[in-house]
Design goal:
Elements (H helix, E strand, L loop, with lengths): L1 H15 L2 H14 L9 H14 L2 H13 L5 H19 L1 H5 L12 H4 L4 H18 L16 H36 L2 H14 L6 H9 L7 H7 L6 H8 L18 H18 L6 H18 L3 H7 L4 H21 L11 H6 L10 H24 L17 H5 L1 H4 L5 H12 L6 E6 L3 E6 L7 H5 L4 E4 L4 E5 L4 H14 L1
Helix pairs in contact: 1-4, 2-3, 4-5, 4-8, 5-8, 5-9, 8-9, 10-11, 10-17, 14-15, 14-17, 14-19, 17-19, 22-24
């Protein structure tokens, strides 16, 4: 189950990768027409509608993307199966009045169009998992001669439609319970206001090592429990829960006021853009003199990635296992940042992650509120991070990069050793891929090679045959999950490394 959830976490990255496009179009559209949101400018309207085309169909994107990600072979038949399965569920569930007898014009909340339609990420993930599993099991199925046309990959969409039709009938009775449970969970956190946002942020960071933070994010960022923070922010809607609306309507004061939308995103900007890069500076300053040049290169690359794009895994994995107490403090500081931003209603939003690019694009989005203050908050947290990291590393002698008793310089020397194995295409990613392939046990040990945003997710026959210590000298981090699953944190160039490893694996 743990390996399966890890695989799901990686699969979720494919549809999430579409979100920056929405941020780009909507952000520019709002910059052109900040008040009319496209109503007063045809170019702005064109850009906003282009971005909305993605946000308004997130469930569909997740169905297709997760189906492809869960399939062992990235084949178009798995994507088609996800599409067919999603349309089956939404069509049957959307016609629930035929089966349950309620008024179709005034359906219960669980069967309202907003809960059932193309925005439903829960349905998308569920269908994607089913379609991917069916593809893995039946894509090589051989049927009798008179049905041979439907053999192999062609039978998978048919099976998906048939199975999802049965699942849809069960969901008619189960979905209201799931929906109400998710809403209750979301409302419990939302009812805590800024404190709830901080609690969410704390567990968001703690779950990073397992890759399960994606499941938690889906509750708050998408339309699983009615919060839908990302979509509402970029569409310029939402913002008032029932309690807030009642208080504001009477002219009273509400502790987190109008800006509820965006509160589960804003506080991450000071951490990604300023806090973690400052922590990286402290790690570099505390490295042994002979290791500072190599550690500096690692920290500089990770810090720039965090600041510009909000991708923090290269930095976080560099110390989360070697100095786990420091990582817990990082999670607590993240919770504090999200709490502060929500309490003061300093709001910006992202479509990918909380880096400078998303912050800049969100400045003129209608739901943004005093986003420049997040930069001020970020500078404060940069100071906090630097001195807290520096104090903890020195006081508790934490073995952050460059401080281990048996550390070797993280240099290009080890990669150069792999150059002959990489052949003519000895670019940096190919060389790293060749060396990792060898250290992971090669063709006799490697079973699955996949990747998410910054890490390789690998299935092997036996993790004891993997040279973990040698791999740690090449990459920011390694995580052995169990006897058959291991993750290697590479960084933002992970896709190129993964492709190169797959090419090597096919030849072997």
């Amino acid at each position: 189950m743990k390996a399966y959830i890890q695989r799901l976490g990686r699969a979720l990255m494919l549809p999430v990768a579409c979100l920056p496009a929405a941020a780009l179009f909507l952000g520019i559209g709002y910059w052109i027409d900040p008040s009319g949101w496209g109503g007063g400018n045809v170019i702005a309207a064109y850009l906003c509608k282009t971005g909305s085309a993605i946000l308004d169909n997130l469930g569909l994107l997740f169905a297709v993307g997760v189906a492809v990600g869960m399939a062992r072979e990235r084949d178009g038949a798995s994507a088609l199966s996800g599409l067919v399965g999603f349309m089956t569920v939404t069509t049957i569930m959307g016609s629930a009045s035929m089966f349950l007898g309620f008024d179709a014009e005034n359906p219960p909340a669980a069967f309202a169009p907003g809960a059932i339609g193309n925005k439903n990420v829960f349905f998308g993930i569920m269908v994607g998992c089913v379609a991917g599993s069916l593809y893995n099991k039946f894509h090589k199925t051989k049927l009798p001669d008179f049905l041979a046309f439907f053999s192999g990959r062609r039978c998978v969409p048919i099976l998906t439609a048939a199975l999802m039709s049965v699942v849809s009938l069960l969901l008619l009775f189960i979905w209201p319970l799931i929906y109400n449970g998710l809403v209750s969970f979301g409302e419990a956190i939302m009812g805590m206001g800024a404190v709830g946002a901080g609690i969410y942020a704390f567990f968001n960071r703690l779950l990073i090592p397992t890759g399960l933070h994606h499941a938690l994010n889906n509750v708050f960022w998408f339309n699983l429990a009615g919060i839908d923070d990302i979509t509402k922010f970029w569409n310029g809607v939402g913002g008032l829960d029932g309690q807030t609306a009642a208080v504001v309507a009477t002219g009273g004061f509400h502790p987190w006021g109008e800006y509820v939308t965006g509160m589960y995103q804003a506080g991450f900007f000071p951490i990604m853009m300023f806090g973690l890069p400052a922590g990286a500076l402290a790690i570099w300053r505390n490295a042994k003199p002979q290791n500072r040049k190599a550690v500096g290169s690692l920290m500089l690359a990770g810090g720039l990635a965090a600041f510009l794009t909000g991708v923090t895994e290269p930095l976080e994995f560099s110390f989360m296992f070697a100095a786990f107490p420091l990582y817990v403090v990082h999670a607590l500081l993240t919770a504090l940042s999200v709490f502060v931003a929500a309490a003061f209603q300093w709001i910006a939003g992202f479509n990918f992650s909380a880096g400078f690019i998303d912050w800049f694009l969100s400045l003129n989005v209608p739901r943004a509120h005093m986003p420049v203050m997040l930069l001020v908050q970020g500078l404060v947290f940069a100071v906090i991070y630097y001195f807290v990291f520096d104090f903890m590393i020195k006081t508790f002698d934490l073995k952050t990069p460059g401080r281990g008793d048996d550390d070797e310089s993280i240099s290009s020397a080890a990669l150069e050793d792999a150059a002959p194995a990489a052949g003519a295409a000895a670019d940096k990613e190919s060389v790293l891929a060749a060396k990792l392939y060898e250290l992971l046990g090669g063709a006799s040990n490697l079973v699955d090679i996949e990747n998410c945003t910054t890490r390789l997710r690998l299935g092997v026959n036996d993790t004891s045959k993997v040279d973990v210590d040698a791999i740690r000298k090449l990459v920011p981090g390694v995580k052995v999950l169990d006897g058959k699953n291991i993750q290697v944190i590479v960084g933002t160039q992970v896709q190129a490394v993964c492709d190169a490893m797959e090419a090597i694996h096919r030849k072997n």
